Amino acid sequence: MFKIRVLIRIGALYFLLFFLISFWYSSKVELHESNLESKHRLAVIVPFRNRSSELEQFLPHMNAYLSSQAIDHIFMVINQADTHRFNRAALINIGFIESRTVVDYIVMHDIDLLPMNSRELRYDYPENGPVHLASPIYHPIYHYPTYVGGILMITCEDFERVNGMSPLYWGWGREDDNFFVRMKLAGMKLYRPYNLTTNSSNTFAHIHDKNVHKRDYAKYGQQKEEGRKIYPEMGFNTTKYTLINKSILKTKTGVEYNMLDVKLECDYNLTPWCDHPMTTNISK
Ligand SMILES: *[C@@H]1O[C@H](CO)[C@@H](O)[C@H](O)[C@H]1NC(C)=O
Ligand SMILES: *[C@@H]1O[C@H](CO)[C@@H](O)[C@H](O)[C@H]1NC(C)=O
Ligand SMILES: *[C@@H]1O[C@H](CO)[C@@H](O)[C@H](O)[C@H]1NC(C)=O
Ligand SMILES: *[C@@H]1O[C@H](CO)[C@@H](O)[C@H](O)[C@H]1NC(C)=O
Ligand SMILES: *[C@@H]1O[C@H](CO)[C@@H](O)[C@H](O)[C@H]1NC(C)=O
User: What sequence ranges are listed for the domain Galactosyltransferase C-terminal (predicted)?
Assistant: First the structure.
């Protein structure tokens, strides 16, 4: 008799405790989730090298543009401060690594492509999948259907899921085509703006001066053939670099940004083309 009464009491106590704890827990979780929902934060990642005058144009423009859309954002300018050929993908990976603890989505952004349609072309959190803002329909120059360069927005979660970008591309081009395949292999749906009232001549301003900044189209050795391979195991987790300086700077007009000076490490066995042949001896 006595035993049963005790057992019932203990049982009731357990039941009450379980009920209280689960109630407390669910209210916590709810609070946490609604917090996250209203608190998206974007890192604008700008691969950079010796383009100070374009930076003075890009940052004030983007700051006004994003502020007009109430997008909480930070600027991450990743300056390649070594003597290797430019590696846009590695710089984007670094921008992701160095900002992922404070943002939940990123936009990889060419410095010379300024969005002009702030009413329709938005930088909101890409919750359904990656958003290619510089769509081939609206880009002033590139119109091929698999083009995903220029401006691409993606959540940190999705970027991590495809292991970021392949860091094996030195010189100009193709790293974005590789990224297109990565997204596709991961089954991600790519979104693009559509039905804008602007067109390819006024959705973006292209401020690139080919005569001042010559593009590095050179291909050495197996570079061209290798560039067609995906190497999914290479990505942000294999990008080797030294962060030599990180500072918070301001443009002349007072826009704050993070400037990260980085030295990339080249694996000469994997990519002997990371330097131009003539400068190989000097830069090592
Ligand atoms: C930086 O760019 C300018 C042109 O804007 C050029 O004259 C200069 O040589 C470049 N400096 C380096 C270190 O590449
Ligand atoms: C774009 O606009 C056209 C014509 O106004 C319409 O038929 C079409 O459904 C729109 N596209 C989308 C994806 O909404
Ligand atoms: C784009 O739109 C502008 C303004 O409506 C127009 O003047 C221009 O001709 C259009 N350009 C193209 C390539 O359709
Ligand atoms: C990097 O991530 C890829 C894909 O998740 C994995 O295959 C590879 O082993 C990782 N490499 C390192 C060095 O962690
Ligand atoms: C880091 O960058 C800042 C801003 O450009 C500069 O003032 C400072 O001298 C740099 N520090 C080093 C160690 O290079």
Answer: 130-206
Protein residue closest via CA to atom 7 of ligand 2: 195
Convert the pLDDT of each residue in 179-223 to its tens digit.
Answer: 999 999 999 999 999 999 999 999 999 987 766 677 888 888 888
Q: Is residue 2 domain-resident? A: no
Instruction: Specify if 277 maps to a domain.
Output: yes
- Ranges of H-type helices in the chain: 2-37, 52-68, 88-99, 156-161, 175-185, 223-226, 280-283
Contact 168, 229 (CB under 8 A): no
- Residue closest via CA to ligand 5's atom 5 equals 247
Residue 230: give the domain boundaries.
42-283
pTM here? Answer: 0.84
The finding on whether 247 has its CB within 6 A of some atom of ligand 5 is yes
Asked if residue 4 belongs to a domain, the reply is: no
CATH number of the domain residue 130 falls in: 3.90.550.10
**What would the two tokens of residue 223 be?**
């570079």
